[in-house]
Amino acid sequence: MPKLLQTEYLEVIAQKVRHHIIDMSTNGGCFIGASLSCADIMVYLYCEFLNISKKTLDDDNRDFLLLSKGHDVPAMYATFAEMGWIEPSRLKNHLLTNDHIYWHPNRNIPGVEFHSGSLGHVPAVGLGVAMDCAIKGKSNKVIVITGDGELNEGSVWETLLVASAYKMNNFTLVVDRNAFQANMATEDLIPLEPLIDKFVAFGCAVRRIDGHDFSAMHETFNGLPFSEEKPNVIICDTIRGKGLPSIERRADRWFVNFNMNEIIGLHAELDGGNIATIDSEILTVR
Fold this sequence. Notes:
The chain is α/β, with parallel strands linked by helices. It contains nine helices and seven strands; from the N terminus they run H-H-E-H-H-E-H-E-E-E-H-H-E-H-E-H. Helix 1 crosses helix 3 and helix 2 (32-49) packs parallel to helix 3 (73-83). The longest helix is centred in the N-terminal third of the chain and has 18 residues, at 32-49. The termini are far apart.
């Protein structure tokens, strides 16, 4: 039976993570929308579910999390800061080339299992880790987080074909289904639905949950593996820009570079204040 969920604790950490992400959205900017959609997933996995801690980052028996949507790294590094794995002061170096924290996940940062940035590559890496663990007779859990737009990459589906063929039930693909891909809605570019049916057709055991509901995550992740003979997929329905109504579900606020007045306003908005006034230039990234 899983331990009791400390929902209030997770909510406090997630709020702090979101404040860090806002702070990383200036002086060059960051992918704030996708980072905020993934924040609750990241906090739940690292703070509650995964068998890993600051003392076991290199332990052979640890669980593995690989972030395939590397542009969400503000959510990952902010979580690491709250867990004491890195100094919070380093987050301001997000866009400085003299720090390994620069721009995307980097293995020189404690807790990062693999470099990422180019989409579609890391699911296969995660499957390789899962197969290695299985060959060694270990019980490590291996989780790969992808974006929904990333599912347009054929390598993701090739990975699932192999995972299904080898019955890798220690491998779990988590989809941050925020319904946007770069600066447009996923369903307006290459429609993905019915997504559950597609994963089932590739031999996966699938669950779909609210990716901002810690109780739903707790119940679902503690049900792994969902099958003795299938890889697992958890589709987490999320909201791009979650926590900041001024930018939630906005295709034009994926990558942002806010000015300091906007940053101050967004911090207040996150804490329940007035909706922030956003005037900065809209940035289109492809």
